[in-house]
Amino acid sequence: MADLLFQRCINPACGGTADCADTAFRCPRCGGLLDVAYDWNRLPVPSSLKHFESKWANRSNPLDFSGVWRFRELLPFAPDDKIVTIGEGQTLCQRADAVAAYCGMSPGRLFLQYEGMNPSGSFKDNGMSAAFTHARMTGATRAACASTGNTSASLAAYCAATQLMRGIIFIGSGKISYGKLSQALEHGALTVQIQGDFDDALRRVQEVSRQLGIYLVNSVNPFRLEGQKTIMFRVLEALRWDVPDWVVVPGGNLGNVSAFAKAFFELRELGLIARLPRLAVINAEGAHTAYQLHERLGLRWNGGAFDAAGVSGYYGELDATNRKPDTLASAIEINRPVNLPKALRALDCCNGVVRAVPDAEILDAKAKVGAGGLGCEPASGASVAGLKRLVAEGVIDKDATAVCILTGHVLKDSDETVAYHSADPATFEAKLGKRGVKAVSFANRAVQVPNDLDAIVAAIQSQR
């Protein structure tokens, strides 16, 4: 396999490469981000995406059962006996007409890709399976990440389920939801809490990983993004291999949008799809770096020669004014997205847009998703809130086919959900009001009644 795949700098002007086994995950020439690259001309590739439908008949094979590895011909970096899977990718892409109406779209045009069905409850398991596989190939015994919650939960789950590695997790002070932290603690990972936010934690985990030789699983790792490509393969599978017009995804560290664009670009390069969808990245207003840079300041990929000095200047302004990310959508509470260059390339490749939406709109969208039966974390609500905004702007046509990515399960951030629906003003204020949310639109509040049968019956009857 060594001569069929390698790591390649994403900057076409650089052309730097690294061996598949290299775990620095930085271009040895320019220090930039890397892709996993394949010599597709010498690898067996199916002639049609329908080839993958046959894998469903072999559910006793763990690799075909996995929603990541049943597509292994499209991420062929590992031999079968090195692949690590715990049953990730058993997700669904559900038509959502009620949410479509909320967003101003026509019936049958909106689909929700629900990644909360993964073993640890978020999309991260797709990438973690691939990263763990690569780590196993390199002989790693320890793996580390910085996390706002979902990555730590996924890393801890894979460490516990496989017993292949010791997990080390860096979190910022007060910047992780208890639902997610509980998973990391329950699964036995070593958790290191530092003073600072996610951006500080990511900087430190990279330094520590380099110094101690620990395998890094954050999305700067290009093998993790290979796993996240498969979310789009499953979307296509659910849509009978038709490419949607739009894919709408929460922003955060920008790994998903980077992986999705790579998936579609490779599929087109291989002749397996005829066109690319458009991509929309949705930030929270309290953590809107991609929106500010792409939409406000006009930052573009420019063939790899993007304005790096402008990005540094923007980050310097954040430091000078001590602006920290601040959003209830904790999974995307990130000011310095490590995959920004890849995301710029993705937006260029797929004619993408970026928007930022306030927490109140995120929570309302989340409630509408929940009312339709798919409970999601706040960051997931950002994709639906962003879609609603783009339809209102006329950017997305009401008759277009759109897929919103729901990144994680509702129980990831249960405190926000309870506060949203609470009839207790103190509960609302403690969790949402103090963070700037003044009112919500779709609260399903408990009905207060005395312990009296007639009163209980009357209350139920009044809610018809």
Task: Summarize the structure in words.
This protein has 464 residues and is of the alpha/beta class. It is built from 16 helices and 13 strands. The chain has helices spanning 62-65, 97-103, 124-138, 150-162, 178-186, 198-212, 222-238, 255-269, 289-296, 308-320, 340-349, 359-371, 378-393, 414-421, 425-431, 453-462; strands at residues 5-9, 17-18, 34-38, 92-95, 110-114, 142-146, 166-172, 190-194, 215-216, 246-250, 278-284, 353-357, 402-406. The chain has a 6-stranded mixed β-sheet with strand order 4-5-13-10-11-12, with helices on both faces. Helix 3 crosses helix 7 and helix 7 (222-238) packs across helix 8 (255-269). The radius of gyration is 22 Å and the shape is globular. The mean pLDDT is 95.
The radius of gyration computed from the alpha-carbon positions, rounded to a whole number of angstroms, is 22 Å
Label the structural class. Answer: alpha/beta
Helicity level, as a percent range?
25-40%
Distance, first to last CA: 64 Å
> Main sheet: which strands, in order across?
4-5-13-10-11-12
**What's the pLDDT, averaged over the residues?**
95
Q: How many extended strands?
A: 13
Ranges with pLDDT <50 over ≥5 residues? none
Proportion of β residues?
5-15%
Question: Largest sheet at a glance?
Answer: 6 strands, mixed
Topology pattern, helix = H, strand = E: EEEHEHEHEHEHEHEHEHEHHHEHHEHHH
Total helices: the number is 16
